[in-house]
Amino acid sequence: MQEKKTGEYFIIKAKENGVNVIGLTRGKDTRFHHSEKLDEGEVMIAQFTEHTSAVKIRGKATIITSFTQVDTDEE
């Protein structure tokens, strides 16, 4: 079964090695369903879908959407 695409694309660019990108599910219970690890300089292009409602990012990264660009804290 092909997953229906339902949302906007966004870009995550790692600013250090080991940035974790974690996809969270839709529905009654929010759960982790997918994770990726990016190294410095790697870029991931992702899209919200009928199964993915949120994304959690751990590590130093730049997130680019059609609305804005955000950097994670660099403390």
UniProtKB/TrEMBL annotation:
Q: Which branch of life, at top level? A: Bacteria
InterPro entries tied to this protein: MtrB (IPR000824), Trp_RNA-bd_attenuator-like_dom (IPR016031), Trp_RNA-bd_attenuator_dom (IPR023558)
Keywords assigned by UniProt, alphabetized = RNA-binding, Transcription, Transcription regulation
Per UniProt, residues of the Tryptophan RNA-binding attenuator protein domain are 7-73
- Single Gene Ontology BP annotation: DNA-templated transcription termination
Annotated GO MF terms: RNA binding
Q: Which family does it belong to?
A: Belongs to the MtrB family.
Q: Please give the subunit comment from the record.
A: Oligomer of 11 identical subunits arranged in doughnut-like structure.
NCBIfam families found in the cross-reference section? PRK13251.1
Q: What is the recorded name of this protein?
A: Transcription attenuation protein MtrB
Organism field? Hazenella coriacea
High-level lineage = Bacteria, Bacillati, Bacillota, Bacilli, Bacillales
